[in-house]
What we know:
Largest sheet: none
Low-confidence stretches: none
Shape: globular
Radius of gyration: 15 Å
Amino acid sequence: MSPDPALWPALAVAGYGAFLDVKERRLPNWLCALLAIAALGGTAYSAGASLLPWTLLHAAISLAVGMILFSVGAIGGGDAKFYAAAASAVPVNNALPMLGWTSATGLLLLVVMAFGRRVRRDARRTPLFRGWTVPYGAAIFAGFGLTLFRA
């Protein structure tokens, strides 16, 4: 099942964020804001204003948890904001599936990075394998997309 076309701009912004995170290991604030606007706008257009409080609740909870994780060094600040922005399109009743898909794809990404470093000697020269930081924006994009496609 395809997500509502009103959410395609949010998916496109999240996809660009994934690309940027893999390439540069950063998710700028303007991109997180653009994703939140596209997500909220798409949700309001497709489902009406009645769903917005539930998506905003999911985004607020996600941002609060993300900032706690950032403060203890578990994730980057951009990752926390990017996830919360994506959560702006997902009602709170789909919070666990989004978290599950994001976590699963993040783990898969980590395994791919570890395997790639073992197999390729020149792996550190490619953007994906540079350093040991995981470009979690890619996992957030995948989790967000999978959640929307499965909803």
